[in-house]
Amino acid sequence: MNEIEEILNETDVRIQYEKLIDYLYRTISEKYEMEKCCDFQCGTCIANRLGKSVHDRNGCCYTKGHVCSHLKNGTCSIQSISCRLFFCSYLEKKYGKCHLSQFFPVKKVWNRKQRYFVEKSYFVDKKELVEKLLQLR
Ligand code: SF4
Ligand code: SF4
User: Fold this and answer.
1) 31 part of a folded domain
2) Nearest atom, ligand 2, residue 80 CA
3) Ligand 2 binding pocket includes 38 (Cβ within 6 Å)
4) Using a 6 Å cutoff on CB, does residue 40 contact ligand 1?
5) Which of 122, 124, 125, 129 to mutate to test the pocket of ligand 2 (most atoms within 8 A of CB)?
6) pLDDT tens profile 38-82
7) Ligand 1 site, residue 76, Cβ cutoff 6 A
8) In 14-123, which ranges are E strands?
9) What is the Cα–Cα distance from 55 to 49, expressed in whole angstroms?
10) CA-to-CA distance for 99 and 93, rounded, in angstroms?
């Protein structure tokens, strides 16, 4: 059984959501890293270096004017799918928008409300996300 089949066949909903989040986070990360979208070098992304971002380092990992508390040693310490999907206007012009529903198992597992929540859940870690998704079933 491949990973997608495993997710779709999972009968425990909580475990199914966790598996889907892991799968999405890894797949999106691999895709962006392969294409070098943000192109991080020594704590600065491409938009930071080109002056296309309001900040000059740490990419766009800021909240209310401060560096996000989840950023540890230059790496995100939680698996926020919405942060992972996010493209700043510079990247959006270059690559277009990336939507959660583009990833195959998503529409099979999450309803519209759940998908909307996942797309907008910036800074939310996996545990919190799963709890909210269970409420939105
Ligand atoms: S989305 Fe844009 S601002 Fe954010 S890290 Fe990537 S290149 Fe930098
Ligand atoms: S939660 Fe979002 S903003 Fe914060 S470190 Fe992770 S990716 Fe960056």
Assistant:
1) yes
2) 1
3) no
4) no
5) 122
6) 999 999 999 999 999 999 999 999 999 899 999 998 889 998 999
7) no
8) 62-63, 66-67, 71-72, 75-76
9) 9
10) 15
CB neighbours of residue 103 within 10 Å: 18
- Tell me if 56 is assigned to some domain: no
Considering only CA atoms, which residue is closest to atom 1 of ligand 2?
123
Residue 27 lies in a domain: yes
CA-based radius of gyration for the chain: 16
How many domains does the chain contain in total? 1
| Assigned domain for 51 exists | no
State whether the beta carbon of 79 lies less than 6 angstroms from ligand 2. Answer: no
The percentage of the chain sitting over the pLDDT mark of 90, rounded to a whole number, equals 86
Range of the structural domain that residue 24 is part of: 3-36+78-135
